[in-house]
Amino acid sequence: MEYKRAPITEAILELKWRDPIDFDLAQRAAKKLSRHYYPGEEEQAQVTPNIIYETGQDPRASVNVLWKGIKRSSADQAESARVSTASLSIMRLAPYTGWEMFVSRAKRDWEAVLPTLGRRPIERIGLRYINRIDIPEQDGQVQFSRYLNPRVAFPTTEWGEPGAYFVQLTFPRAARGLALIINTGTVVSPILHYQSVLLDIDVVAEKLDLIRDERIWELATAMRGEKNRVFESCITDAAREMFNA
Amino acid sequence: MSAIQAVAAMRTMPGANGQSARAMPQDSISEFHGSMPGTSADATSAVRTTMEERLFQSSANFKILTSMVAMHLPVEWREKMFQQIDTLLDAEQWESDDAPPTVFSARTFLRLILALNSSVRPGLGASHDGNLIAAWTKGKNRLTVECLGGDRLKWSVVREAPDRESVDRIVGATGLGRFVSQLAPYRPEIWFTSGEQ
Q1: ipTM of the complex
Q2: Which residues, in sequence order, are CB contacts of B41 under 8 Å at separation 6+?
Q3: How far A85 CA sits from the closest chain B CA (Å)?
């Protein structure tokens, strides 16, 4: 279902290769991503500080930097792609412009890096949609269960609904061999006099050995179908109404 | 961001902000209220010292923060605000001693925009110490709001007096939560409901 004001704050598709690649190769592949679409570029590293303190001696400090990948971003920062030593990730921030555009971009970027990387098996595909549902307060309160189906069951109703909660649900063997992870809970709202709930849906296909492009995109599309099914099952009609207001 | 925080951000795998799909989402949900957006970029921020790079990062932070509330903004607002911020942060025009707008100020600015629910986009400026300034002008009437971190605002109103021969000037400092009610006596609809500036 498409909404006028979809609550998606970030969509991420990650294709993880079976065997990690060198940073140099990731860097060369990232250079093949179009500068027209992604003028921004930043190298990303894992930085590990080491501080050694021995009695009677001055502390000694050093920093290890392990280069991990290159992120390329559109001028408005809404679209980005990351080639790392482990994977290719395609990201889209709000406003979300639909699956067709998202997956087309993923295919385009995949085809751009493929000649440099060479065809290599994909071991894992992750499709993650982070939604934030912003709900206006009424008398300073929000009844979350009016908008969301996943909820916290508490032994007594004496205290009403919780003002804040956080739940992680993992389904290692969800439908069609996919794993599903849902994180949901209250977050500080970016809007005054609103309260917000995070609904973070992550669909994962693991232990893959995919080489053929069409199989990758077929699976990604099927995962998107599952993600939509999960999302729709998590929200109520009141939420749908709000997204279309 | 400290080096230790950088490790925490980078040990997870991707996501526009460097979070793993499996990571607990407290990191990602702090996009708007907690850590700097684009934390994955921060590992390299220590070497980003030129003013041009700082301005770029300030602009990128603003755009990422805006994306967090983009579903509540008209599409054309987002595009035009980005043009405004790019113009404001043009390295060739920027005074080299001034600090680029901080992410904390940008966050307050966006919360202000959403709270006011104005149909008129403000003009944008920046203070020398890294705060965004929003301004609405209608004839002699002017509302200027400096957005500090943590929802704090400094504001000034120039309002034509009823005799139309003089103007009243009022300044204030308040939190965002009380700003709308403090502004009410000055009939702010003159700034917020009359189409594009």
Answers
A1: 0.85
A2: A42, A44, A71, B57, B60
A3: 10
